[in-house]
Each structure stands twice: as structure tokens, then as C-alpha cells.
Give the backbone structure.
Amino acid sequence: GGLVVPAVFERLPQITLEVMFGDLAGTFPNHPADPLQPANQRDLQARVVAGGFDIGLAFDGDADRVFVVDEAGRGLSGSTTTALLAAGVLRTNPGATILHNLICSRAVPEVIREHGGTPVRTKVGHSFIKQRMAETGAVFGGEHSAHYYFRDNFRADSGSIAALVVLEQICRAGVPLSTLRKPFDRYAASGEINTIVDDAAAVIERVAAAYADATQDRVDGLTVDLGDWLFNLRPSNTEPLLRLNLE
């Protein structure tokens, strides 16, 4: 990210870019290169406010993810950014199919439909998103974890492309990002809550039984929809954890 992102922005003379922690150092002396963790965005949020910047961009090490911070120093969730990007993509691809994973906010499919697109809900993860993009011909896909996939980028995720589309949206709207984000930022969400369990499958079945009267699906873990609130409970693919997302 520290090498590639400045090279991309060099071609945007109307944009003033300040790079924080851009030295290539595999020891990550400032903080880990994982913008999903709120603590790793704090330096950026403070700098955006102190420097009077219009936007902050928090990339991970290889810049396939980006989290966005508005001019007031408040971060956008991956879901809010997915909805914002979907609106921008649909402006130039009317009626297109857009993918979102199932832990994205329900605002995402709402925004896609409102802008004339077709939302497709997927499991969480690179391989599932890319396969479904190929199957459906989707032009864009977004994940709550801030991976954003573009058909014209070989269906691969790119934080740089996502950042440019967000900048385009701000420039077209002519309003601060704190104002632009409001129609896409609709619901209260828990964020991902991780719990260590001995038997993830057994816990999921107990939770399913407790909400037996609610609408449920098993696309990825357990999703329970109770109308004005819903949650997904899914096992980690890599750790002995259950991941809860509630909205």
C-alpha cells in the first residue's frame, strides 16, 4: 500500500495526498496493517481532523482493502462504503448485478435496488465472491470487511480502485463525506463480536432452536431475521471462534 497508492494518486493532480507511515517496513513499527481493527485507524482519524482533510483512507499492507474516514474523523463501515460504491458503479452500469456478503448491512441491498441494480447475497470470503461474480456477471461486489471486487479488475479486490470511486462520488455530490454518507448509513450494528467456543456447530444449533419461530437460513452459518432486527452467527474459517454480527 505504501508503494502503490502514492503512484496511483500521482495521476490526480487535483488531489493533495499526505501519506502516513508509508515507509516499507515489515516490522510494522507504528501499528499492524489491519484497518479492520478500530485501534489501527485512530492515528488516521486524528490526522484527518487536525489537518482539515476531506477524507482519510486506511489501507492494509497489500492495499486490497481500504477503510474510509470522513472529514469529521468518523469511520465508515465496510457496509456503508459498499453501498456508496454500489451507487457509483450503478451510475455507469445501469441495471447491473451487485454482490454483497450476508454480514453486510441490509442497507446495501436496499441501496442497490433503489439505484436500479440487482443485489445478490453471498457467503463470506474471497473464493465465494469471485465464483459468484463469474456465475452472475456482477460488475461489483463488496464485503463488510472492506474487500471490494471489480469485474473490470479481473474480479479481484482493490482498495485503490475503491478509494477512487469514493473520491468520484464526493466530487460529483459536492458535499462533505459526512453528509454524503447519511443515506447509506441507516441502521445500528454491533460490529463483529467473536467468542471462543468448544463446539461451534452445537452452539449454532442451540441458538437456532431458541429462535425457532423466526425466519432463518443457513447460507453461511445461521442467519435469523426477526423483522426489525437480525443477526448472523457463523464459525471462523481459521480460528475456534463464533462470529456474531447483529443489526
Remarks:
- The mean pLDDT is 95.
- The longest strand covers residues 230-235.
- Helices lie at 4-9, 42-51, 78-92, 107-114, 126-136, 159-173, 177-180, 200-210.
- The two ends are 32 Å apart (CA to CA).
